[in-house]
Design brief:
The protein has 247 residues and is mainly α. The chain is built from 12 helices and 2 strands, in the order H-H-H-H-H-H-E-E-H-H-H-H-H-H. It has a two-stranded antiparallel sheet with strand order 1-2. The two termini are 23 Å apart. 37% of the residues are buried.
Length: 247
């Protein structure tokens, strides 16, 4: 399977490094979180339009690093208007699924509860805001097991592939969170883990020189004929994500 866009198409640092990795507002550090909260609220006290300006940056400006910085800051502001605007924006606008996920994280960090319903890549989803993972380790064990399965095959002999697999996997999981594809991963069965692990290995291998062909990868993960159709469906889902860019 060839023709998959290069890694640059799906590596979006602004969508990943500040949501699931260590960053300026790392929520694992309570002192740092409190400093960030005080900084943002101080700005809001000086400028009564500060929340509105941040919301405008998020909802009206072209997608950029400033979009994610504004979402981070909105996490710390006490304003019910912010929740309402973000929820309505999710339901009204066609947004990149990774941006949708960052909005969901912002709502959760703001203490919003309940469910929000909107379209994700043409599929209507219903998301429990309180359950939205903020960190990689917050995703269910079955989701973690898929990446671990790829690690078993690549971490020693092909660490470059495993590095990019890690980068891609959690971006993909965030992008499909709440969808039928995501729910299919929650079934803790070996066949499901193997199918998604093989698809992840294949999609990354397609972008790297000297990667295994699809037959070799299917053999590595035990993808027999009766699993092949489901493997190809998983592969197509991942390829659709990697080819979408930030459109």
């Amino acid at each position: 399977m060839a023709g998959t866009p290069g890694l640059a198409y799906w590596c979006f640092p602004g969508l990943q490094d500040e949501s699931l990795e260590d960053n300026e507002f790392d929520l694992s550090d309570e002192a740092e979180e409190e400093m960030a909260r005080q900084h943002v609220r101080s700005k809001a006290a000086e400028d009564k339009e500060y929340a509105a300006k941040l919301l405008q940056t998020v909802t009206d400006q072209p997608l950029s690093e400033q979009t994610f910085l504004a979402l981070d800051q909105l996490s710390y502001l006490e304003s019910s208007d912010v929740d309402e605007v973000l929820v309505q924006w999710l339901g009204r606008q066609k947004l990149h699924p990774l941006l949708q996920y960052r909005v969901l994280q912002t709502l959760r960090r703001r203490g919003q509860t309940g469910h929000v319903t909107f379209l994700r890549s043409g599929e209507r989803v219903d998301i429990d805001i309180e359950s939205v993972p903020l960190r990689q380790e917050d995703f269910p064990p079955s989701v973690q097991s898929i990446l671990e399965r790829v690690g078993e095959q690549t971490q020693v002999h092909d660490p470059t592939l495993f590095y990019f697999a890690q980068e891609l996997w959690f971006q993909f999981v965030m992008a499909i969170y709440g969808t039928v594809d995501y729910r299919s991963m929650l079934v803790e069965e070996d066949d499901i883990i193997d199918i998604w692990a093989a698809a992840l290995h294949q999609i990354v291998s397609d972008t790297l020189p000297g990667g295994h062909n699809d037959e070799e990868i299917r053999a590595l993960y035990g993808i027999t004929d009766h699993l092949r159709l489901r493997f190809e469906q998983a592969y197509r889902s991942m390829r659709q994500f990697t080819s979408s860019g930030l459109k």
